[in-house]
Amino acid sequence: MGLVRREQCPMSELRWIVMGTGLIADKVTPLLARAPGCRVVGVASRDLGRARAFADRHGLERACTYEELVGTGASTPENQGQRHRHADAVYCTLPNRHHPEWTRRLLDAGFHVLCEKPLCWRRADAERLFAEADRAGRLLVEGFMYLHHPQIDALTTVARDGDGLGVSPVGPIRRIEACFESDMKAVGREATRYSHDLAGGATLDLGCYPISFVRTVLGCELGDMKISGVVARPIEGERLGVDERIEIEGLASGVSFRLVFGIDRSGSRGVRLIGVHGTVSTEWPWSPDAERAELLVERSETHPRGAGRETIVIARGGDKFVQQFGAFAAAVRGGRAARPSASWSIGQAEAIERVLDAVGVDFGPGL
Ligand SMILES: NC(=O)c1ccc[n+]([C@@H]2O[C@H](COP(=O)([O-])OP(=O)(O)OC[C@H]3O[C@@H](n4cnc5c(N)ncnc54)[C@H](OP(=O)(O)O)[C@@H]3O)[C@@H](O)[C@H]2O)c1
To answer: Which one of 78, 96, 337, 361 is at 20 to 30 Å from 204 when CA atoms are compared?
Structure first.
């Protein structure tokens, strides 16, 4: 699985269709339009009227339905020519449930695909999708925008410094804490976060960030984990509830970690790397500021310089979404490796699967 067989994109600009017209599509489309080497040419929706309204709002040329997008819908004078001949890539912002299946259909229709997190909740689905992307010669990337801000590289450098006060300002890291708690009861036009049918829940919506964080900064898979969770009552009209809150205590590469995520109430969104001589933390791991991101260093008394506080500033790190799309376009042109990689996303799906299994939530196969 890799970059080698991918068909490189001959044109200078990657032409995008945004799939879905919800919260993230509305917020991110202007950022996609700003990304180097990218142009947004259209939008797809379940409802053509909603697609047209979205296209008007964002100044896009084309509006179509999902079926028209993949070329199996009925052609009308209005939607003629809106198929993938006019676009190269799709940014998929559908609810989680639809990610694996629609990604497969989009790859099959010849698009490069950037699918919002989480791409999959089962390892087998992720393996199959990346194999299909390889076969089709198309790029498939899971959308984890915070991985495109230099803050994650700074935190990774701190986390992997095993030799004392080399690059880590607090000595070797022994423990990582990562949280993402947010009251999601009212978010999403159709309460997607509490819907089992749409594969909502704390792990797929928020927990995938802390899970991805530990895997990224340590550069390994999660080892032993003790996982506890709360499953919500089913929402009206559904039979099963989603995982609402999860706590994990684990060990990976000799570093202990604690992950907390929940969609039931707002709380911490921070990460803390705990070293032998202090901690490095931020309350903005998932949404670092484009102009000025800050990591707080708190030295303990055992630190050679004594107890104290200082700040590591990451100036003008840039917008994480703009950089995500720019990196995708560069990868399609063959100039850069995809971030995150296929193997990273397969490992991520496996980690999610382990967590969901442990709390007895089963969204079924995605493909
Ligand atoms: N990276 C980030 O920062 C970030 C932030 C938020 C969300 N996300 C991810 O982005 C995805 C969408 O989140 P969102 O907050 O934008 O959700 P949302 O507001 O519920 O929007 C999802 C869109 O998907 C389309 N859709 C297709 N089938 C649907 C169905 N059966 N029910 C509901 N909508 C359906 C709808 O557009 P049409 O009606 O036009 O078809 C809807 O507007 C999720 O996977 C989420 O994890 C990422």
So the answer is: 337
In ligand 1, the atom with minimum distance to the C-alpha of 51 is 40
| Predicted confidence (pLDDT) per residue in 230-265, tens digit | 999 999 899 999 999 999 999 999 999 999 999 999
Name the residue among 144, 19, 21 with its Cα closest to residue 82.
19
Question: Which sequence spans correspond to the domains of the chain?
Answer: 14-145+323-349, 150-317
Regarding the beta carbon of 353 and ligand 1, being less than 6 Å apart is answered no
Question: What pLDDT is stored for residue 160 in this prediction?
Answer: 85
pLDDT at residue 77 above 80? no
Counting from 1 in the atom list of ligand 1, the atom nearest the Cα of 43 is 40
Q: Residues 104-133: pLDDT tens digits?
A: 999 999 999 999 999 999 999 999 999 999
Q: Do domains 14-145+323-349 and 150-317 have the same CATH topology?
A: no
User: What's the whole-model pTM score?
Assistant: 0.94
Q: Which two tokens stand for residue 242?
A: 């989603």
CATH class of 150-317: alpha beta
| Dihedrals phi, psi of 167, to nearest 5 degrees | -100, -20
Q: How far is the CA of 331 from the centre of ligand 1 (A)?
A: 25
Query: 363 Cβ partners below 8 Å, 6+ apart?
Result: 97, 121, 196, 199, 204, 356
DSSP conformation class of 74: P
